[in-house]
Each structure stands twice: as C-alpha cells, then as structure tokens.
Write a structure and sequence with these properties.
It is built from five helices and three strands, in the order ααβββααα. By secondary structure, it is mainly alpha-helical. The chain has a domain of 94 residues. Strands 1-2-3 form a three-stranded antiparallel beta sheet, with no helix packed on it. Strand 2 and strand 3 form a beta hairpin. The longest helix is centred in the middle third of the chain and has 40 residues. The chain is elongated, with a radius of gyration of 29 Å. The termini are far apart. The C terminus is likely disordered. Pfam families: HLH (PF00010).
C-alpha cells in the first residue's frame, strides 16, 4: 500500500466566521456597556449612597442586627452592607441595573398616585358640577391626561380613537403645571 501524505488542514472555500463573530460580540458588549452607562447618568446619585456607605459609618448604637446579617436602623429600614462596585469606585453593572429598576418603580408609583389623584379630582368636579348646576366644559372630564397622552402614541384605552372624541383639544395640560410636583 502506498501512503499518500495528507494534510491535517482541510481547505474550504467558505471563509472563517470566527473573526466576524468576535467582532459582533465586541460591538454587542460595547453597546450594552454604553446603555448601562447611559442608565447610570439618568439615575439620581442618591440611589447609590448605600453602595458607597462604609460599614463603619452605620450608627450601631441606634440599630440592631437582623437574622439575615443586615442591620436594622432605628428608622426600621434594613441596610445590607453593600460592595463599593468596581475598583475605580463606580457602581458595577449589576448595581446600576438594580438601582435603575428601583428608580423606574418609584417613578411608576408616582405616576400611579398622580393618576389616582386626577381621577378623584375629575369625580369631585363632576359631583360639584351636578350639585351647583354649573356646566364644566373647558376641561376633559371623560378621560384622564394619562389616557389622552397614551392615545397620542397609539396605546391605552383610547388607542385608535379619533382625537376629537377624547377632547384633547379642550384639555389644558401644560407640562409647566406639573413642575415641582416631586416627592
């Protein structure tokens, strides 16, 4: 038998995709990192105070340990000793995402509270209008400002309904009216 020398490499007309995959992964990771940094810039710094608080700054006289190893302050709030983030002292990605979720939840709760307030006020205006016999036609008493705003972007209960129906032309919602309403 004659032996034919074989090459260990197999030539192929298909180009290697290893370099392209690595480049795509690098772009994807870069994009994720950019978006996380963008989130960091949008979250108020006070959301990261717990991460920067050193364990020796806790007032141990007015606090007690809980079974989970966290410290219960005199105000009744649990404060786990959290890490300081990255080596350069900035919050790490997990901390940024956690605080972003907390911040969004707080904002959503504020929006929900304002919506409930608005509904209560609309009901009160309708009630007073019936009692006094004075017609109120300069504001929209049928829909909340949230419903109207959502309809403008195509979502919510008024999505697809023509604008004259929900009376946004009559509603006087000026963004300046809501300034200074933070809690």
């Amino acid at each position: 038998m004659s032996s034919i020398p074989r090459s260990n490499s197999v030539s192929s007309s298909v180009p290697s995709t290893a370099g392209t995959t690595m480049e795509n992964d690098k772009k994807r990771r870069g994009n994720i990192n950019d978006k996380i940094q963008q989130l960091l810039s949008m979250i108020p710094p006070e959301y990261f105070q717990d991460y920067y608080r050193r364990s020796d700054s806790i007032d141990y006289e007015n606090s007690q340990m809980t079974p989970g190893g966290s410290i219960l302050s005199s105000a009744g709030m649990s404060s786990k000793n959290k890490g300081t983030g990255t080596k350069d002292g900035k919050p790490n990605k997990g901390q940024i995402l956690t605080q972003a979720v907390e911040y969004i939840s707080k904002l959503q709760n504020q929006v929900d509270a304002r919506n409930r307030e608005e509904v209560e006020l609309i009901l009160r205006v309708k009630e007073l209008s019936k009692k006094t016999g004075v017609a109120v036609d300069d504001i929209n008493l049928e829909n909340t400002s949230a419903e109207v705003a959502l309809a403008k972007i195509g979502v919510g209960p008024l999505a697809g309904v023509s604008e004259p129906y929900y009376g946004s032309g009559n509603q006087k919602n000026n963004p300046a009216d809501y300034e200074g309403c933070e809690e």
